[in-house]
Amino acid sequence: MGVLTDRIIARTYLTLMRVTVEPMVFFFFLALAMTGSASQLMYIAKVCHHLNYTSEVCANLEKPENQLERTDVQDQVSELQTISTVIGFLPASLSTLLLCNAADIIGRKSVMMVSIFGYTLHSLNFIVNWIWKDGSPYFLLFENMHAIFGGETSLTIGYVLYISDITSHRNRTFRLTVVGVLNLIGKGVGVYASGLVMDYIGFYGTFGIGIALIIFCGLYTYFYVNETLASSENISFAAVFNLTNVVDGFKIVLKRREGGERLIIMMLVLSFLLVGIQFLGYFSLLMLYFQQLGWTYSQYTLYCGISTVVGLLGSSTLVPFLISYVGLSDMTFAVVAEISVIISSVLIAFTKPGTMVLPYIAYIFGLITSPIGTMIKSALSKVVEADEVSRVLAFLGMMMPFCAVGPPIFNLVYRDSLQWEWCDQTRANIGHPNTTSTTETPEYEKKNWCITAFIWLGIAVLTLRTLGCAGCVLMPNISSCLVTPLPLEAVSVYQVKDWRSHSTEGHHHP
Question: How much is the pTM?
Answer without folding.
Answer: 0.77
